[in-house]
Amino acid sequence: MRRILIIDDEDDIREVAALSLESIAGWQVSTASSGAEGIQKALAERPDAILMDVMMPGMDGPTTFREMQKSPELASIPVLLLTAKVQSVDQRRFSDLGVAAVLFKPFDPLTLADQMSTVLGWTA
Amino acid sequence: MHVFLLITTLALAAACLALLARAQTTTRRLQAALQQAQQQLQAKDKALAERMHLDSLKDEFVSTVSHELRTPLTSIRGALGLLSAGVHGHVDEKAASLLRIANNNTDRLVRLINDILDLERMDSGQASMQHRTCVLRDLIAQAVETMSAMAQEHKVLLEVRPEPAGAPATFEGDPDRIQQVLVNLLSNAIKFSPAGEKVVLFSNTDGDSLFFRVVDFGKGIPADKLDAVFGRFTQVEEADARQKGGTGLGLAICRAIVSQHHGSIWAKRNDADGAARAGTTFYVHLPRSQPAESNIKATSAS
User: What ipTM did this prediction achieve?
Assistant: First the structure.
């Protein structure tokens, strides 16, 4: 079974996203509420993909992603970045980071599962 | 002789003193003018710095508002989506109807937030605009593809008529924004067309200009509201926003985008030229190249 790690400081979004990926796609989901916790969990669990919010207190999404890129264990895990910044320039800036895809808030559960499938490289 | 020399010397000395006095006066006047110019410059620098600070605060505010509004909407839309998909049990007809209402209104709120923030960014010059070579045919194809589902849903036929046929026109501008104009115009035309009618998108170019026309055969806009519809939250009829699901900002956004491309946009009743059919035609005129110091600027959005 594919394992997804969700990193988001918002409890409700973590819960909705987790339910979406578990119920619709049938994946196994674990969550972290900060970038630092996300890195720890990613190292311990080695998920197949990561869903990560951009704006988080402390270490934000892009910083967390860059930290992960420095780690040989985590660099190859695809990251789907979740953001409320909808301008095309933001999309390009985030894509330039090297993330697998960018998903804009608010998303619906089917789109999330679909996007994550694409990120993982197979159809749900 | 000595007396003459003395008198001449004294006269020269007096003249020199007078000149010196005048030079001193001129120097003082120039110094005062310089000081005044420096003060004005400092005041302008201060005003500019304050303006930049305010712009940055406003940009930060818009970004924060965007984030703060979208975050709870993400939870709402996600929860509604999960319930609607029936992943947590069967949804009966009544519950499905209520979920549809909640979903539609969530979508409407999202559109409203997007439009308000878009317009705000454009007004403050903070909207990020690209400056690229755009292929007209590609933009039209993308806009029509985006709107085809909506056209089907409303049973409206979308027709594209390039003039002259297939002209591979290119122009300078922001492809995403121009497509947004096309989508907004097509969306309005579809929304206000009766089922079974068609909406036609004409395009044309000449040496320096590019033209679009989006024609619908709905009931048309009263002549006295043809310009007002480009205002914010302006609807032809008060109930339109509720019934048609618009935000009342689409055409204001179109005008802002076209204006940033140094073009113009306007509307005319189809029967204004004596044509028998009702409906409205929206015209867009864009220059094919942008001036060197164009307002289309790529700023880093917050």
Answer: 0.79
